[in-house]
Amino acid sequence: MRILLVDDDQSLVRVLRQGLVSEGCVVSAAHDGAEGVRLAMSTDVDVIVLDVMLPEMDGHEVLKSLRDAGVATPVLLLTARDAVSDRVSGLEAGADDYLTKPFAFDELLARIRALHRRARRGEPELLVAGAVTMDRTSHEVRIDGTSVDLTPTEYRLLELLLQNPGRLLTRQAILSRVWGYDIDVAPNAVEQYIHYLRTKLGQTLTIATVRGAGYRLDVPAA
Fold first, then answer.
1. Mean pLDDT in the chain?
2. Is the model's pTM score more than 0.85?
């Protein structure tokens, strides 16, 4: 999952990022409302975790801007206010769920996963290309029925390729979808992980290098 955290409490963001990354998520963060709007509109994320009390624009204003612009990404609102009127106003503004501070990380994670599942209804849970199958529910990858051990980053990269068979994926697109925009990665990270996948997949799939452009998963002939 790709998560955008919008909260001006940098200590909280640091803790949440660490926990979410340990669960295999790609996390981007903004520390004020204006930056949150910019990132939400310019990056591809699965769930937005949005604090209500923000500098420049509060969470309700951010949410209204996103919904007015047609951004339908699920939003989980965070707030220290527990009044029914506050919860109702957030939900009426377009939030998909609401969580009151302080909260347990496990509850936050469960709510994020529930929003992600709800948004993905209708998408295939099983991705197949040639002899390779990916079960997105169990996070299991198999080649001809034999399980393949992938790291979280390798899994996200393979998932992206399987979702876009035959399409050119630029290096920047891969970085943003697999690692996120605001995280430091090695200059050759994409090339390195493409190599790891090629090694683990062997001859079952072809990940073609398009010189000067990016990478493409060549679809096996039926």
1. 87
2. no
